[in-house]
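Exam revision sheet. Question 4 asks you to relate a sequence to its structure. Input first:
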Amino acid sequence: MMMKTAAATRIILTFLSLIVAISAVSEGDPCGINGGDFLDDSFGGTNAVSGPGCTLADGSTECYCASIKGDENPFGEWVWQCNTPEETKVEFGPREGKECPAAIPVPKDYDFAQPLCDTAIHPTGLDGDPSCPYHDCDEGGDMSAVCGCVDMAAYQMGEGMAWYCLHSSCSSDDGFCGEQGSTSGSYVRGNAVSVISALVVALGFLFV
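Answer key, structure tokens:
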């Protein structure tokens, strides 16, 4: 009987750790993107960078994977940040005096030269000059993106200025994003229920 009790305790602790792992992302946590990914045409993120915003497991709402305000390093790590009525942590362009193209300038899997732009009139995506947002989350899609006009010489990538877009999803690894976008939140809740059900079954076998 003592062996069964010890085994049951180990199973309970294992399943509890799984539940915590399923529902662990909070505001301020890394979200798998850094500033350098902006310049990588092959990069595809898994967490929403624009759109209606996500609700994370800690209850924070209107959350995005975004660069940190005031971070002067354009290649810095992005984290989950959530807007509130009191504070807008994640801003989208264009600021007054600038303009964003009506359609995303660099669609996903774009197979041509980067479109030209002008940092004098187009958002750069750098701190203080928020990028242009694009998404199809409200139409049931799973694409969110932010785009900026990049001064190529500043990054030793050549001359001139060109549009670059960071593509990601309407989802989050742990949360619910919008009414029509991918529903990781229900996935999280569903998996928690599955874990609990499996726990009940496992314990039932132990105490037969």
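Marking note for examiners. The helical segments are 2-22, 184-206.
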